[in-house]
Amino acid sequence: MSFEYIRTIPSSEHLKALLPLSSAGAAMQQEKVQEIKAILSGQDPRLILIIGPCSADNEFAVLEYATRLAKVQEKVAEKIMIVPRVYTNKPRTTGEGYKGMLHQPDPNAKPNAFEGIKAIRRMHIRVLTETGFVTADEMLYPSNYAFLDDILGYVAIGARSVENQEHRLTCSGLDVPVGMKNGTSGDLSVMFNAIKAAQCSHDFIYRNWEISTTGNPFAHAVLRGGLEHNSGRSIPNYHYEDLQHTAEAYAEKGFENPAIIVDSNHNNSGKHFDQQPRIISEVLHSMRYDSLVAKMVKGFMVESYLVDGAQKIGPNQMFGQSITDPCLGWEATEAMIYDIADKL
Within its chain, how far is the Cα of 269 from the centroid? Predict the structure, then answer.
């Protein structure tokens, strides 16, 4: 047999009963989701900053990071809405390596998805109820969204998943904003096709049910750069001409709530994490020269944690340093957020 069946995963209903979200937490989630939607639709002039570690590998470090963010949010609230990036599934190009807290709640122990699902729900609830932030996570496995659908405020579809039909159709039934990244090649048509699919209604099979969706009008674009086909060199798509081209192509398609989020890391930075503040500064500068770009760009994604850089998984890991891709450290992060607010 090709598969070894290890343990049964609890249903989403069972998990929610085991780890319930309080009525106050549920009301907070709904309020914050409406704020994000207002920004994406242009009713709220603030920018969204989706920021946090490449992979949320430690509940206590994530809580410490979010607590620090909350103090900064108070000072920039009139210009920026911060949405902590609490990514609990890690897509791997080759399938090897740490796949996130969902699989491995303890990076130094064996995978345990049963405990992992409980760990990620608990962590998202704690960030929401203890810091007042609604969180963002990546939808790597569409069927797992039901474990967090009452907590999350934002869902990202990664460059490897954005062409997948199940991801696109599932997003058409979500009632939270969904960011569709351009594919790893940098081809924008893949991203635009995904936005169109997510904004349309569909009938399909989901979690052993035949379901019908009405479409998600808040599916939007995330620019993360791409890779040159022959050399594998990073090709950014955050420069003025790139933003202008994307905004014009977007406007022609007539989608609802057209919005662009610029991912300042990945192939836009060539994974040089320390370049993220510079990239954001350039985008803010570009927004002053084109009214359509200024109207379309609604915010940024940033990979940031407590400590600069990254480390390998091991018994003596540094608290708050990424164990996957390198991240911007706290001091530079704090300075960057204040700089963004000053430039708005």
Answer: 17
Distance CA 247, CA 107 (A): 41
Evaluate the CA torsion angle 322, 125, 69, 79 in order and state its sign.
Answer: positive
* Predicted confidence (pLDDT) at residue 102 exceeds the cutoff of 80: yes
Rounded Cα–Cα distance for residues 125 and 135 (Å)? 9
Q: What is the mean pLDDT of residues 131-143?
A: 96
What's the average model confidence in pLDDT over 130-135? 98
Instruction: Give all domains of the chain, ordered by start, each with its CATH number.
Output: 19-343 (3.20.20.70)
Token representation of residue 112? 């345990």
The model carries a pTM of: 0.96
How far apart are alpha carbons 15 and 12 in whole angstroms?
5
Q: Mapped to the 3 state alphabet, what secondary structure does the chain carry?
A: CCCCCCCCCCCHHHHHHHCCCCHHHHHHHHHHHHHHHHHHHCCCCCEEEEEECCCCCCHHHHHHHHHHHHHHHHHHCCCEEEEEECCCCCCCCCCCCCCCCCCCCCCCCCCCHHHHHHHHHHHHHHHHHHHCCCCEEECCCHHHHHHCCCCCCEEEECCCCCCCHHHHHHHCCCCCCEEEECCCCCCHHHHHHHHHHHHCCEEEEECCEEEEECCCCCEEEEECCEECCCCCCEECCCCHHHHHHHHHHHHHHCCCCCCEEEECCHHHCCCCHHHHHHHHHHHHHHHCCCHHHHHHEEEEEEEECCEEEECCCCCCCCCCEECCCCEECHHHHHHHHHHHHHHC
Are the C-beta atoms of residues 83 and 135 closer than 8 Å to each other?
yes
Q: Give the number of other CB atoms < 10 A from CB of residue 78.
A: 9
pLDDT band at residue 15 under the 50/70/90 scheme: very high
Report the pLDDT value the prediction gives residue 1, as an integer from 0 to 100: 60
12, 143 contact by CB (below 8 A)? no
Assigned token pair, 58: 């430690």
The predicted pLDDT at position 256 comes to: 97
